Amino acid sequence: MDRITKAARLMIVSDLDHTMVDHHDPEDMSLLRFNALWESNYRHDSLLIFSTGRSPTLYKELRKEKPMLTPDITIMSVGTEITYGDAMVPDEGWVEFLNQKWDRNIVAEETSKFSELKLQAETEQRPHKVSFYVDKAKAQTVTKQLSECLEKRGLDVKIIYSGGMDLDILPQGAGKGQALAYLLKKFKDEGKTPVNTLVCGDSGNDAELFSIPEVYGVMVNNAQEELLQWHAENAKGNPNIIHAKERCAAGIIEAVGHFNLGPNTSPRDVADFMECKAENVNPGHEVVKFYLFYERWRRGEIDNCEAYLASLKACCDPSAVVVFPSGVEKTLHECIHAMKTCHGDQKGKKFRVWVDRVLSTPIGSSTYLVKFDKWELSGEERSCRVTTVKIDAKGSNATDGFTWVNVQQKWLEGFEKDESTSVF
Ligand code: GLC
Ligand code: MG
Fold first, then answer.
1. Domains of the chain in sequence order
2. Whole-model pTM?
3. What NCBIfam families does its record include (predicted)?
């Protein structure tokens, strides 16, 4: 988080299941499109927050299944747990705040009297969240009776119904909206209120996000009935909230464009990204397009033409070296030359390459060290090389692009693979 020294240009606060992540898209195309847009245009000066109903356990599982980026802040368990950074450091202040007028044991005792409530898995029961399944038809009645019971016992709780099946009981001060309000207040106190905030969701537990003042909101196209109904009753004429035409992450990209929040063309939607537009010239964009080219080359989605490799070579210092995870060294020109042998070798296969956590640090007037995780999915197997690239800006303000000066790679622990299967 210290990465961002000024107010974030854009802060995206997004739900995960059926919002950022489309469980009906086995190729994860819209997620990968969002990732490329974020890392190429926003990562360096904006904030990404995931806000999910999942517990830390299930959140980590989802990260293993889907090509998700690493957010700056993670809000889990329906706004009851806030953590910062890759290390997921918990916000202790939030925990203390939630302890007010909350007694988990009383909630457990009272809910056990309702036969309609079926307890969710143990991992989803959290210090400030008790969760059940309940039939759609019974949800309203149960919610009403339950809140009366708990009020009588002196508790101030919030009951949220989501996805037409999940019922969560939280302290009144908790929830995705309250957690966001808490973070916005923190940013304000530091003089770093984000220039724009976009909230994104699809189900009941996201509704609160849309009632935070001064945020833009997108209900993705596939939003649940309960969220659309909440919107119809509470926020109808609000021009800052849209119901997207597109599903999931594609709906988020659509909203970025609709509200004019910044660039909204994902590099994945650009056929010939070697022609890069001046507005996109930044180190993040440079690495995104490089690895995207590599993915398309191996998938055989671009022609095996010498001109492409020549233009790639033209972006490299002739003496530039790649140090592989094993310590083996080759020149970048040699590596690019070697690409000839793997053109189209992943055609028709499950093969994707994406970058995460792109961080560029200037180390001279026109030189940057760009550090990132380079992920490769091949079939069901994932590997990740933590990569550091030194690049030089060509022309004033990199108007003529960048020159790659050297590349260093290390395996991310737990994601090693046979080095020879990949050129980069
Ligand atoms: C996630 C959580 C679950 C919760 C639901 C709705 O699926 O795992 O516990 O009930 O979100 O908030
Ligand atoms: Mg959802």
1. 10-90+174-259 (3.40.50.1000), 101-171 (3.90.1070.10), 283-411 (3.10.450.50)
2. 0.96
3. HAD-SF-IIB, SPP-subfamily, SPP_plant-cyano
